[in-house]
Design goal:
It is a single chain. The protein has 426 residues and is α+β, with helices and mostly antiparallel strands. It is built from 12 helices and 16 strands. Helix 3 packs antiparallel against helix 4.
């Protein structure tokens, strides 16, 4: 959520963010409600001052033994108006907050301008041993053919059990998935300074509102109305809400969490996109990175978080590129966002495997997460960051394709060997 002062003082800046992120322009309604709210607050303050004055007058009259009925009647009229205005104010603030929830974050001024992914900027590319030939499209088995040949995954039976987009991992495929998750958790918790947490897979509406998933992305969520709970689209949601409505100490920052979870997304509106196998699924696994930072340090922490996610891909020897997203492709809640795309040589495509975002105070204001610089200082909103460290679905595609040998076997990256009973799939 944006600070209402920014909306009030810089409406053109906010409108540019609304336009870039293709959300409804409701700014005039926001400013109208804000004006009504401030007018009522001003009127209530005047009336409360008057009520205090009248109360003192009543006490003075009574001390003299005089009749105070007329003054008491006047005070009742004032009190009744205050009550009515308080009721009106609650309604206006409810409407105003609902509108504020639908306004996107303002993007960082240094990011590219553009309408879609075509305006994103590649800022880094990495290939094992600097061998650019690894970025050529090559012949071989795609991940679905590999899965069928070696019985690693069963998408047809997954669809029978649940629905299309819910994969079933089998045999060495299940073991490889577990090895990837354990490797990533160990890397982030033992080497990159994150504290591991295992969060709930279901959250309430207030948690999703805090991260910006509600109300905008309601149609992407799986909802259980009997319990008023949602399946999480990412561990970012429960982990960010660990400190909702809390005040942290500046000396404890940054706080860094990593978390494994399954993620559930309806992928509404994905008609026409490539939905084969792991390219677009409704359930997938991911190791998430979340940071709580001092405002002045958040962009330094953003670079470090992104580098932590990149280190996973480098140790798995998977080519990737870092993309700086333009304002039209940056997420609703993000101020600045990098995507890490892995190269899939048989697919011949770059596949997004991680998004790393700095939300500045946008999520913290929604979730009321603050900090104090010292015990006597005024609370300030913290900056939150998160990134995939990384999602396993498209990572699995890239791993199987990049480590596929000429005979069709799959060489397992060395960093995974200690988690498995096999070093190749053949």
């Amino acid at each position: 959520m944006l600070d209402i002062k920014i909306i009030r003082e810089q409406p053109d800046l906010v409108r540019s963010a609304i336009k870039a992120k293709r959300t409804d322009d409701i700014l005039d309604d926001v400013l109208s409600f804000d004006g009504d709210r401030r007018a009522i607050i001003s009127r209530v303050e005047l009336l409360k001052n008057k009520r205090n004055t009248v109360s003192e007058e009543i006490a003075r009259i009574k001390r003299k033994g005089e009749d105070a009925d007329d003054v008491i009647t006047e005070m009742k009229i004032v009190s009744d108006e205050i009550t009515a205005l308080d009721t009106a104010l609650r309604g206006i603030e409810e409407n105003l907050n609902g509108l504020l929830d639908s306004i996107p974050n303002i993007t960082h001024p240094d990011i590219p301008h553009g309408e879609d992914a075509s305006a994103n900027k590649e800022v880094k590319r990495w290939v094992p041993r600097g061998d650019e030939t690894l970025l050529e499209k090559k012949k071989g088995l795609d991940h679905l053919q590999v899965a069928e040949k070696y019985e690693l995954f069963d998408f047809k039976r997954g669809a029978k059990i649940a629905a299309a987009g819910f994969p079933l991992y089998t045999g060495r495929g299940a073991a490889l998935e577990r090895a990837l998750i354990n490797f990533m958790l160990d890397e982030h918790s033992q080497h990159n300074g994150y504290t591991e947490v295992l969060p709930p897979l279901f959250v309430n509406a207030e948690s999703l509102r805090g991260t910006g998933n509600l109300p905008k992305f309601r149609d992407q969520l799986y909802y259980m109305p009997e319990d008023e709970l949602f399946a999480i689209p990412t561990a970012e949601v429960p982990v960010t809400n660990i400190y909702r409505d809390e005040i942290l100490k500046a000396e404890d920052l940054p706080i860094k969490f990593c978390a494994f979870s399954a993620c559930f997304r309806r992928e509404a509106g994905s008609y026409g996109k490539d939905t084969r196998g792991f390219l677009r699924v409704h359930e997938f696994n991911k190791v998430e990175l979340v940071k709580f930072s001092l405002p002045e340090d958040s962009y330094k922490e953003h670079e470090a978080l992104t580098a932590n996610a990149e280190s996973i891909l480098e140790k798995l020897e998977i080519p990737y590129r870092r993309m700086l997203l333009c304002d039209g492709d940056t997420g609703f809640s993000s101020a600045k966002q990098y995507d890490l795309e892995v190269w899939a040589p048989v697919e011949g495509n770059w596949l997004e495997a991680s998004s790393c975002s700095n939300f500045e105070a946008f999520q913290a204001r929604r979730a009321n997460i603050r900090f104090k610089r010292d015990p006597k200082s005024k609370p300030e909103f913290i900056h939150t960051l998160n990134g995939s460290g990384v999602a396993t679905s498209r990572l699995m595609v890239a791993l199987l394709e990049n480590h596929q040998q000429a005979d069709g076997s799959i060489a397992i990256p060395a960093v995974l060997h200690k988690y498995l009973t096999f070093t190749s799939i053949a």
